[in-house]
Specification:
By secondary structure, the chain is mostly helical. The chain has three domains: 1-87; 91-158; 177-283, no CATH class. The chain has helices spanning 2-19, 25-55, 59-68, 70-73, 77-89, 93-106, 116-128, 132-152, 160-174, 178-188, 192-195, 198-216, 224-240, 264-279.
Length: 283
């Protein structure tokens, strides 16, 4: 399908070039319309093909597919975004910035219209290329817009800055800097009544489980102040997580867990008990 559509696109691209010499607006408009429709079809097929390799975590192949399609797609935002993602997954942060940045700058005046993951990935890319000032400026911009929304609509939940902080915290935890990473994760969920949700809890608990695993193997030593901060955080999650599901159960899932166990409160207590066990407070 990809090969056939590539061939058709090349023919239509030639027709678009040829019609530019004709002074017939109707013919020009029709040819451009045909080209745009064919390009849409091509991008759908291209993304479906790329997703197969993405799911197999063969990011080099995804990048190869996108590089082949550059002549037809270099103006398309969906294409640019997915190229940025695949470069980011391969730690090619400098190249990823060149694709993320134009998309973010296009929506800079209403930055919360940009996906939180895109903003988070751009912030991480800045940090990884020692452009900390740019990362801080972007986060200040997100914070300012979120504050404005909170002022206009106090009950509305907004998660952009929370997700950016979660991603940065997770990155530091993955690199073994738990002191800074865990503090970032904890900061990302404040205030708990607005930021604690099923999705945000999912990412936060992964960092805590990773920390506990490394502590139990004696690969990580945590300062007492950070341990205290972790326990305090889990106690806050207990208080605010009573009505928050820990996971969203699939309607056709065969095994349904106990209703009392599917809350953030239950899982926070479990994590706190594990902390006590690992650091020997229960002895």
């Amino acid at each position: 399908m990809n090969s056939k559509l590539t061939e058709q696109l090349r023919k239509l691209a030639k027709q678009v070039q040829d019609t530019r010499h004709i002074r017939d607006d109707e013919v020009q408009s029709k040819t451009l319309q045909d080209y745009d429709l064919m390009q849409e079809k091509y991008i759908v097929v291209l993304m479906a093909q790329a997703k197969i390799y993405w799911n197999r975590e063969n990011f080099q192949m995804v990048e190869k597919i996108f590089r082949k399609s550059v002549e037809f797609c270099n103006d398309d935002d969906t294409w640019k975004l997915n190229v940025a993602h695949v470069l980011f997954m391969q730690n090619k942060y400098k190249e990823a910035i060149s694709f993320y940045e134009p998309i973010v700058k296009k929506h800079y005046d209403s930055i919360l219209n940009v996906s939180a993951v895109v903003l988070a990935n751009l912030c991480v890319s800045y940090i990884m290329t020692s452009q900390n000032e740019e990362a801080e400026e972007l986060m200040r911009k997100i914070e300012k817009e979120e504050e404005q929304i909170s002022y206009d609509d106090p009950d509305k939940k907004v998660f952009h800055l929370c997700i950016v902080n979660l991603v940065i915290g997770t990155l530091y935890c993955a690199k073994g800097n738990y002191d800074f990473g865990i503090s970032r994760v904890i900061k990302s969920l404040e205030p708990y009544n607005k930021k604690l949700g099923t999705d945000t809890w999912f990412y936060a608990k992964r960092c805590f489980l990773s920390l506990l695993e490394n502590m139990s193997k004696h690969m990580v030593m945590l300062r007492d102040a950070v341990v205290q901060e972790c326990v305090q955080f889990l106690e806050h999650c207990e208080v605010y997580g009573k009505e928050v599901p820990a996971i969203i159960e699939q309607p056709l899932g065969e095994i349904h867990g106990h209703i009392g166990k599917n809350t953030v409160t239950y899982e926070a207590r479990l994590l706190k008990a594990l902390f006590y066990e690992v650091i020997g407070w229960n002895k």
